[in-house]
Design a protein that fits this description.
The protein has a single domain, classed as Rossmann fold, CATH 3.40.50. With 230 residues, it is α/β, with parallel strands linked by helices. Helices cover 48% and strands 17% of the residues. Bound molecules: 2'-deoxycytidine-5'-monophosphate. It is an enzyme of class 2 (transferase).
Length: 230
């Protein structure tokens, strides 16, 4: 089968990373979690005190330092998935916490941040054979991707999934706070000026509110087979 580009977009915590990672592993493709890249930039901004007390961002300082932010992924043989590194430091756990989650949307809305990330993402996918998940992969990063999926699920289902995920990792979690965070991020992600979250015209939509992980896996694998044969 020919090597293709697979773009998986959708709302936060809708299970798209799980399905994207599992598919990449099954078919031997590279997997890139672009949300982890925006989260890493956010962690960098938090650590360098770039959030002012009124919640605004010191954009000038962040823009100047963008070239000092190196984000890489390394395969973790224990989990069978890639871990995220920020300037050589393993940050996989820290970027998933509530503090980064609460600050990431305004960072992801900054045009100079998006430009830098999109450029790196396009480099990563130069050779095809890639599964990339995010918000703008099918619309902006790879508008010519052979397979585009747009995943949705209700905010309550997504909040419950993130709650369970954090608890399982032994992290602090409150369902109501998570639901509020999910709804806020949906709003900012789909109303921002640059690359708002939207379904590409040629993307296939999947509402997975009532699907098991196994059902999703099988559905996605079928879509891949169809797209790669063409
Ligand atoms: O998928 P996630 O929840 O880890 O994404 C974190 C944030 O990054 C979320 O607010 C949306 C943003 N994001 C984006 O704007 N574009 C992407 N391609 C991926 C994520």
């Amino acid at each position: 089968m020919k090597k293709i580009t697979i773009a998986i977009d959708g709302y936060s915590s809708c299970g798209k990373s799980t399905m994207a990672k599992d598919l990449a592993k099954e078919i031997g493709y590279v997997y890139v979690d672009t949300g982890a890249m925006y989260r890493s930039v956010t962690l960098y901004a938090l650590r360098h005190n770039m959030f002012m007390s009124d919640g605004s961002i010191d954009e000038t300082r962040l823009q100047k330092q963008m070239n000092q932010i190196q984000i890489t992924f390394r395969f973790n043989p224990t989990t069978g998935r890639p871990d995220t590194y920020l300037n050589g430091e393993l940050v996989e756990k820290e970027i998933r916490g509530l503090e980064v989650s609460a600050h990431v949307s305004p960072i992801a809305a900054l045009p100079f941040v998006r430009e830098a990330m999109v450029c790196q993402q396009q480099q990563m996918g130069r050779e095809k054979g890639i599964v990339m998940d995010g918000r703008d992969i099918g619309t902006t990063v790879f508008p010519d991707a052979e397979l585009k999926i747009f995943v949705t699920a209700s905010p309550e289902v997504r909040a419950q999934r993130r709650f369970a995920e954090l608890r399982e990792k032994g992290m602090e979690a409150n369902y109501d706070d998570i639901l509020k965070n999910v709804e806020e991020r949906d709003y900012i992600d789909s109303h921002r000026e640059v690359s708002p979250l939207r379904k590409a015209d040629d993307a296939i939509e999947l509402d997975n509110s009532n699907l098991t992980i196994e059902e999703q896996r099988a559905w996605l694998f079928n879509q891949y087979k169809k797209a790669a044969k063409m």
